[in-house]
């Protein structure tokens, strides 16, 4: 009897430690190798990498066509240099220009540019929301991502195993009045950028039309590796995102700039969100969408560290949390180590075949 009493605390302690060893804690934050797989660097200063080294992060830097073809080229050369100097810490994508869209040589020129960028070290190609929301052809018709002129581009990328990164459409909040949006970061962003607040522009395609065009493009290119930025603009519903994953097995998503919507859904049904992350654990890639323009070094590094630490707490603990992104409190997901490792690095390596 005495032996049993002596053994019980020991057995309980062993079982408890074994269970807890399946999860990370806040103390593990800087010990675990991670990547911010949606980042933008527009400077040759080392501000971002300084903080990344402290917090055990790598960077995947995404080039974007914002309407200036010269900027794409300049950023490409800067990122190529940065990755050459820091090959174990930095990888990068490219983007293509839409100037000359109506020229018969546009397709061949674009494929040549993509091939040159890949030869320079780029591991993927990014398309942005100006496709579907801004860019028009010579007849003033809005160009959508399923336009047939993109077909040979995506066919070439498929044949050469070049992933496509897509920020297509916007969060569903974009089509709501500011005071009806579910997250503060969305209402703040669209208040600052009314040109992209589609509630004010009913003449543009609806949210549903944007998503449908993206899905038609994927149906035409079933073997194309696709990474949907910002939860593939299906950030508002884990149920709908599950349908997207089931429908398109060659698609993953990054989590950049949409954590507020995840917090919001966790507040409503935490177990549903947690089970969703565990079930589709191979499809998520961590990122922030932060930008470094070489200014305000201390502010940038402080902001990076705080955001990285907040997301780590949400994904690895079951703490009761609050965020400036939403109203009210929510509980962390406390995902198993295996899932956390995939989100923070393993899935990036799987989908981009890099670093």
From TrEMBL:
It comes from the Bacteria. This is Amidohydrolase family protein. Residues 107-352 form the Amidohydrolase-related domain. Keywords: Hydrolase. It comes from Maribellus comscasis. The keyword Hydrolase applies. GO terms for molecular function: hydrolase activity. SUPFAM superfamilies: Metallo-dependent hydrolases (SSF51556). Pfam families: Amidohydro_2 (PF04909). Transmembrane segments: none annotated.
């Amino acid at each position: 009897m005495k032996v049993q009493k002596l053994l019980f605390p020991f057995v309980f302690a062993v079982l408890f430690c074994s269970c807890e060893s399946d999860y990370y804690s806040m103390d593990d934050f800087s010990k675990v190798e991670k990547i911010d797989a949606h980042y933008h660097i527009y400077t040759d200063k080392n501000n971002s990498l300084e903080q990344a080294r402290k917090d055990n992060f790598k960077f995947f830097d995404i080039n974007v066509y914002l309407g200036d073809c010269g900027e794409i080229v300049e950023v490409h050369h800067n990122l190529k240099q940065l990755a050459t100097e820091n090959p174990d810490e930095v990888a990068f994508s490219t983007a293509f220009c839409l100037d000359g869209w109506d020229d018969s040589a546009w397709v061949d020129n674009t494929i040549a540019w993509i091939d040159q960028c890949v030869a320079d070290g780029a591991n993927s190609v990014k398309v942005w929301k100006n496709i579907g929301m801004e860019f028009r052809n010579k007849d003033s018709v809005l160009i959508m991502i399923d336009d047939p002129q993109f077909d040979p581009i995506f066919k070439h990328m498929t044949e050469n195993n070049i992933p496509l990164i897509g920020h297509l459409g916007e969060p569903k909040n974009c089509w709501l009045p500011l005071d009806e949006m579910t997250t503060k970061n969305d209402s703040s962003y669209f208040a600052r950028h009314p040109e992209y607040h589609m509630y004010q522009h009913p003449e543009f395609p609806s949210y549903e039309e944007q998503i449908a065009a993206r899905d038609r493009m994927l149906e035409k290119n079933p073997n194309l590796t696709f990474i949907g930025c910002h939860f593939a603009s299906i950030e508002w519903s884990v149920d709908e995102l599950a349908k997207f994953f089931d429908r398109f097995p060659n698609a993953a998503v990054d989590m950049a700039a949409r954590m507020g919507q995840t917090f919001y859904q966790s507040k409503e049904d935490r177990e549903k969100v947690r089970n969703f992350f565990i079930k589709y654990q191979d499809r998520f890639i961590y990122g922030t969408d932060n930008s470094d323009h070489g200014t305000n070094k201390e502010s940038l590094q402080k902001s990076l560290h705080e955001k990285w630490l907040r997301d780590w707490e949400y994904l690895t603990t079951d703490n009761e949390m609050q965020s400036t992104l939403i109203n009210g409190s929510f509980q962390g997901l406390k995902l198993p180590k295996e899932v956390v490792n995939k989100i923070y690095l393993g899935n990036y390596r799987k989908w981009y075949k890099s670093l």
